[in-house]
Design goal:
50% of the residues lie in helices and 9% in strands. The strands form three sheets. It has a five-stranded mixed sheet with strand order 1-2-8-5-3, with helices on both faces. Strand 6 and strand 7 form a beta hairpin.
Amino acid sequence: MAGSHDLAFDPWDPEFLADPYPAYAELRARGRVIRYEPTDQWLVPHHADVSALLRDRRLGRTYQHRFTHEEFGRTAPPAEQEPFHTLNDHGMLDLEPPDHTRIRRLVSKAFTPRTVERLKPYVHGLANELVGRLVEAGGGDLLTDVAEPLPVAVIAEMLGIPEADRGPLRPWSAAICGMYELNPPKDTAARAVRASVEFSDYLRQLIAERRKEPGEDLISGLIAAHDEGDRLTEQEMISTAVLLLNAGHEATVNATVNGWYALFRNPGRLADLRADHSLVPSAVEELMRYDTPLQLFERWVLDDIEIDGTTIPRGAEIAMLFGSANHDPEVFRDPGRLDLTREDNPHISFSAGIHYCIGAPLARIELAASMTALLERAPTLTLTAEPPRKPHFVIRGLENLPVELR
């Protein structure tokens, strides 16, 4: 075990944010678990440990199914943040069994391979339409023109959110996701609370409408499940819808732009891909490994665990470094190299264990659809300027990605 003094790991430093991978290598060399004082967490940088801990039931996304805040040695969140925590704490990402199991079982009905397969023509049609507009304009911002509208529309379509109501979805989502960063400041929390209230109010109204007139959408499906056996409370329905929207597009948007930025910086690899579109499926996996949109995932220690001779006590928080695990040379040969033909690629960008991303099959379809459309219809796409990175660490992405057709 090592301490956090003199570490290159600094999630608030712009240089680290621009390229955290050298700092991860240093962390892995330091040991299997490193105490990090600024966030009061234990950092876990190795693939084998992250993979095992994601499946370890002695850890939890929450502790409130077993302990009060006081018993766990934590303080309750400030009262003014209550709307955010009510929304967040009733979604399956932050629940543990038995509630997690019950909600996931109901939601997974919407993500069966058959349902996801049925969405394919819609996803491909929309990707082509968005890329077509970008081509007509001769270029634009790949983030706002293609990466963002595609997954937002797909998840909104699944949930049954009318097209006219979709404008605020992305800003609400971005505001709420600000709370997942390390030590979020007060103004971030205030924005997240406001978005939580507005989003919840909107969904409460939509649920009331779907109760009267059910459709074929996911919200109608959740209501039916709820009314059949009272298995989902209204709050759980609201939290589930918000989680699906946030997770369903934050990750896909960032995976798209991080991926294309990586390709532009590796022109040889991009040329290979343009010459052989059959590489798209393995390219999607490799780009998600190479610069993953979710760099860190937290878990509470519910019962003491030991890592490499260090006891991590109940009440502590573990920060699993997905970005580091995905670059662990013990698992990935030459991890700093972008290899679109990498066959053995057990990246953990979709997590693992009971919290494995329920939308992974849909995300893969979306990423492949936009990539294929761009390769086919915009073969001369070029980066026009260095894109600024968002000043966030946990959810890694770009502010924009300016492109043109040469």
